[in-house]
Structure formats: C-alpha cells, structure tokens
Automatic annotation (TrEMBL):
It comes from the Eukaryota. The gene is TBLA0B08450. GO terms for biological process: DNA repair; leading strand elongation. SMART domains: AAA (SM00382). Belongs to the activator 1 small subunits family. CDD domains: AAA, HLD_clamp_RFC. PANTHER family: REPLICATION FACTOR C / DNA POLYMERASE III GAMMA-TAU SUBUNIT, REPLICATION FACTOR C SUBUNIT 5. InterPro entries: AAA+_ATPase, ATPase_AAA_core, DNA_pol3_clamp-load_cplx_C, DNA_Rep/Repair_Clamp_Loader, P-loop_NTPase, Rep_factorC_C, RFC_lid. This is AAA+ ATPase domain-containing protein. The keyword Nucleotide-binding applies. GO terms for cellular component: Ctf18 RFC-like complex; cytosol; DNA replication factor C complex; Elg1 RFC-like complex; Rad17 RFC-like complex. GO terms for molecular function: ATP binding; ATP hydrolysis activity; DNA binding; DNA clamp loader activity. It comes from Henningerozyma blattae (strain ATCC 34711 / CBS 6284 / DSM 70876 / NBRC 10599 / NRRL Y-10934 / UCD 77-7).
C-alpha cells in the first residue's frame, strides 16, 4: 500500500465528514443541548441513544466525548461494538480492565460507548447490567441501538433515553451543501432533492449515494442528474412506475408484462423494487374509489411476502399485473 492510500482524500465521506464537534451534529438540537447541560452540571447519567441508522448516534457521543476529554480521549473513552461475535465475556474483560485501571492524571468519569447493543442476547444484556452497576462509581456508559424495544427493561431503566429522529430534509441539506462545496460536486437541484427524499432521514445514505454518483462520473465536469441518483440508489424512477401502471391499466396483458420486464432489465431492478415504487406512486394517486387502493395494497403486500419466501419471480410479476388490473375494476363501477 502506498502512503497515498491512507490520505484523508481517499476516505469514505461518512468517515471524512463525521462531525468532530457537537456543533457539527445537525438536526438533533434537543439531544445535543440536553447532554451538554448534563455535562456542564457535572451530572452525566448513563445514556441510551436509539433510533434509525445514519441519524448521528455514534457521531454525537464521540463528539461529546471529544468535548469532555480533549486530548485525553484515548485514556478516558472505550469504544466497543456489542455485535462483535466474541461475546459478552470479552466485552466484560475489556470493560473490567478499562474501568478498573486507576486514573492517575485526570479526575472525573471514564466513558464506555457500547455500539449496536440491540444485537446482544438477553443473557448478555443482563450481564451488562451487572457490569454497569459494578462500575458506576467511576464510569459512565453510553449505549447505542437502533431499537429500544430489543433491550431488556432492566438495562433500559438504568439509562436516560434519547430518541434520534430521522433527520429533517433541511438539516441534511445544510450538511450536504457543505460537502458539495468541499468536494466540488456538480449536481442538479432535482438530483439533490431526489437524494434527500429517497434517503428518508439517513445522512449516511445521502453521503454514500452522492459519493458513489461522483465516483461514477467519468469527468468532474459532468453534472450528476436525477437519473444517475435513481440508478445509484437502485430505486425505480417515478416516471417508469407511472409507465408500468399506465400500461397495465390501458394495454393488454402481454404488452404490460413486457413493459415491466423491459424496465426491470434496463434499470437493473428486482420485482420488489417495483412493488415498493408502485406503492409509493399510488400514494399520490387520486382514486374515485378507496376500495381500489386498499385492494391493491393488501394484495401487493401478499406478493411481496411471497417473493421474500422464494416465490417465482415470473409468476409473481404476473400476479402484480393481475392485482392491479382487477383492482382497477373498482374504478369502473
Ligand atoms: N445529525 C447528523 N449531523 C451531521 N452528520 C450526520 C448526522 N447523522 C449522521 N451524519 C453523517 O452520517 C454518518 C453516519 O453517522 P453515525 O453517527 O454513524 O450514525 P448512526 O450511529 O446513527 O448510525 C456520519 O459520518 C456523519 O457524516
Ligand atoms: Mg452508529
């Protein structure tokens, strides 16, 4: 490996643009101001950050720890990943070793960050609860998880909980605008809006998609357009979905089937992607009869389930056409 490979320029953007300070965490103002207050009052409790991926849980606690410890970070903070398959015993030993070494040069709490804690078994969580109790005197824990309901009540009750919301579009916009300038990205307004919408509040996804689009351009002079964004994300374009729906409703079976196949093949999509796209486009349709929507949605749900259980793609494609054709008969009455 040449020295250049470790250059910061080659890092994935999610690493390169990870917030270094709490001020660089966007769209989670309440969480940020509350934990800051805990710290300034010297009353940091054990914390639980939970919520969907890419909303800043890891970034927030790491930035907070940097603010608290500065240069002493590596002595005072232990970052562990609970989904590590080495199990709770390894975690326990690492925690024990870290928490029980004396702090010679600094006072105050040590911090243990336990990422992906919802991947732990109940037994491991119970063990963790006992560890937390044992070391509470000089250590604070911050537990990170996607789902709070996967954590045991005993663990939950020992932490102050913060839910991380999917990031609002405006917050993601502020953050990505910054990156776009720094990386000299050329992207159309439509393409950027599509990225923000399709990422559904996941900032990691926004960064990854735009970096992938940028890398896919053969010249930095080309502008990233909406088309490319949809390709990178692997989501059908709304216009393609509308074309499929029109074909199913207005043309004969074979034509509809071939329209659908053509779009699947040329866009590299799977049938489940199309189903998701159809559900989304249908949300915006005005229908005379609400029965139509109910019928389509519930039957598409069944088809999606069948596909995930290994249903034959050709048969299921036909079923999609059948569902839509027959459901739209409600519109005729
Ligand atoms: N609230 C946020 N403000 C700024 N950047 C964010 C935010 N949330 C996520 N990011 C970006 O997305 C990447 C992943 O964030 P991370 O904190 O690891 O999310 P989580 O732990 O919630 O999955 C980070 O590198 C950062 O660049
Ligand atoms: Mg994380």
């Amino acid at each position: 490996m040449s020295g250049n490979n470790r250059n910061v320029d080659n890092l994935p953007w999610v690493e390169k643009y990870r917030p270094n300070k709490l001020d660089e965490v966007y769209g989670q103002n309440e969480v940020v101001s509350t934990v800051r207050r805990f710290v300034s009052e010297g009353k940091l409790p054990h914390l639980l950050f939970y919520g969907p991926p890419g909303t800043g849980k890891t970034s927030t606690i790491v930035a907070l720890a940097r603010e608290i410890y500065g240069n002493n970070y590596s002595n005072m903070v232990l970052e562990l990943n609970a989904s590590d398959d080495r199990g709770i015993d390894v975690v326990r030993n690492q925690i024990k070793e870290f928490a029980s070494t004396r702090q010679i040069f600094s006072k105050g709490f040590k911090l243990i960050i336990l990422d992906e804690a919802d991947a732990m078994t109940n037994a491991a969580q119970n063990a963790l609860r006992r560890i937390i109790e044992k070391y509470t005197k000089n250590t604070r824990f911050c537990i990170l998880a996607n789902y709070a309901h996967k954590l045991t009540p005993a663990l939950l009750s020992r932490c102050t909980r913060f839910r991380f919301q999917p990031l609002p579009i405006e917050s993601m916009r502020q953050r990505i605008d910054n990156v776009i300038v720094k990386e000299k990205v050329k992207i159309s307004e439509d393409a950027l809006n599509a990225t923000l919408k399709l990422s559904k509040g996941d900032m990691r996804k926004v960064l990854n998609v735009i970096q992938a689009c940028q890398a896919g351009q053969n010249s930095n002079e080309n502008e990233i357009d909406e088309e490319l964004v949809y390709e990178c994300i692997g989501t059908p374009k709304p216009n393609d979905i509308k074309m499929i729906l029109n074909s199913i409703m207005n043309e004969d079976w074979n034509t509809a089937y071939f329209t659908m196949e053509r779009i699947k093949v040329t866009q590299g999509l799977a049938l489940v992607d199309l189903i998701e796209g159809i559900v989304e486009v249908l949300e915006g349709y005005e229908l005379k009869n609400e029965e139509t929507r109910i019928s389509i949605l519930s039957r598409l749900g069944d088809i999606e389930y069948s596909i995930s259980h290994g249903g034959n793609e050709r048969v299921q494609s036909s079923a999609v056409i059948g569902v839509i054709k027959s459901s739209f008969e409600y519109e005729m009455v």
